[in-house]
């Protein structure tokens, strides 16, 4: 259910684009925030709608530049603050902990977003653009055979990189044991309350090699501290391991896909991505040189190139009802 206007911390750089945000309640009464980008000009035949599914710790405004490009290429864009991040409801007293008990909760957020898209009569065909954790949520959604024709992924979280070599072999056992001991709402090992972009330096960051985009995403959380999020809870981490392992056991969906993977990726499992895309008959993996985790958080010309490629892919897949190119 749509429940009124929400804040949107994004500068109106062009009067040709309308950008709005609203509150939305999910079926289990969690308040999330949705963002809508559309042309302010009359469109006789829009190309369709792109659903942007952000990653963990992210928020609507981070994809403002990307959404602007899609709108200028003839699309509408709708996106969301997942529960536990951005301006959506956070479940724990420590608001800096990212938390869910099971990844099926994110599907409830997505279901609410889809329901509103129907009510808003957003133009079809519908496409997915999913980053990191959003890629995990999107892959599950594609197995649910929802209304999406095809999907583009950037650095999808189909497996998690555990940086601490000592913890790596025991990660699942540690997470399950912690839950049994009622420690599931504590920070996951090696994580803290600090928001990465609020404390990290550009040199050595794991997100982007582009200093301007690094400044852009850091400025957002520094100017609007309510958007900040620290590490995940232990039970989020355990749920993420369960979900990614379960998805890895499933065949690839029937819809077509396009996946971008940075050659300097350090956050999600490159091997899981490569393995998945090898088995995705109508999927295509694109290796991006000199890129890190945030493929779209690169300089302006590169971002325009990537979005244009995605639009060409979306239109090609829209010519068939099953999304098979």
What are the defining features of this structure?
325 residues, alpha/beta, Rossmann fold, nine-stranded mixed sheet, 9 helices, 9 strands, 32% helix, globular
- Please indicate the percent range of residues in DSSP E strands (runs of 2 or more): 15-25%
CATH architecture: 3-Layer(aba) Sandwich
Number of separate domains: 1
- How would a textbook summarize the main sheet? 9 strands, mixed
Overall 3D shape: globular
First-last Cα distance: 35 Å
Alpha-beta content class = alpha/beta
| Oligomer type | single chain
Query: Any idea of the CATH class?
Result: Alpha Beta
Rg is 19 Å
CATH superfamily: Alpha/Beta hydrolase fold, catalytic domain
Helical percentage: 25-40%
Q: Please give the number of β-strands.
A: 9
The main sheet orders its strands as: 1-2-3-5-4-6-7-8-9
Tally of helical segments: 9
Let me know the average pLDDT: 91
State the CATH topology: Rossmann fold
Low-confidence stretches: none
The H-and-E topology, N to C, reads as EEEEHEHEHEHHHHEHEH
């Amino acid at each position: 259910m749509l429940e009124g206007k929400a804040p949107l911390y994004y500068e109106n750089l062009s009067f040709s684009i309308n950008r709005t945000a609203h509150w939305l309640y999910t079926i289990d009464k969690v308040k999330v925030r949705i963002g809508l980008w559309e042309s302010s000009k009359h469109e006789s035949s829009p190309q369709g709608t792109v659903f942007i599914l952000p990653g963990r710790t992210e928020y609507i405004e981070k994809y403002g530049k990307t959404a602007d490009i899609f709108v200028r290429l003839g699309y509408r864009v709708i996106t969301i603050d997942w529960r536990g991040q951005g301006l959506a409801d956070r479940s724990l007293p420590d608001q800096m902990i990212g938390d869910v008990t099971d990844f099926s909760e994110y599907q409830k957020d997505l279901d609410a977003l889809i329901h509103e898209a129907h009510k808003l009569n957003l133009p079809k065909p519908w496409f997915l653009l999913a980053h990191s954790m959003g890629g995990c949520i999107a892959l599950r959604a594609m197995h649910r055979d929802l209304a999406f024709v095809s999907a583009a992924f950037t650095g999808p979280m189909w497996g998690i990189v555990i940086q601490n070599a000592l913890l790596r072999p025991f990660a699942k056992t540690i997470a399950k044991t912690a839950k049994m001991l009622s420690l599931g709402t504590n920070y996951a090992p090696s994580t803290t309350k600090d928001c990465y972009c609020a404390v990290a330096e550009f040199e050595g960051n794991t997100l982007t090699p582009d200093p301007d985009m690094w400044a852009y995403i850091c400025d957002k959380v520094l100017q609007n501290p309510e958007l900040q999020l620290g590490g995940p809870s232990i039970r989020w981490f355990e749920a993420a391991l369960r979900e990614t392992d379960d998805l890895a056991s499933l065949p690839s969906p029937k819809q077509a896909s396009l996946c971008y993977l940075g050659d300097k990726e350090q956050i999600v499992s490159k091997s899981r991505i490569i393995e998945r895309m090898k088995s995705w008959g109508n999927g295509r993996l694109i290796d991006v040189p000199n890129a890190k985790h945030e493929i779209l958080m690169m300089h302006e010309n590169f971002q325009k190139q990537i979005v244009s490629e995605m639009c060409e892919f979306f239109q090609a897949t829209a010519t068939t009802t099953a999304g098979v190119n």
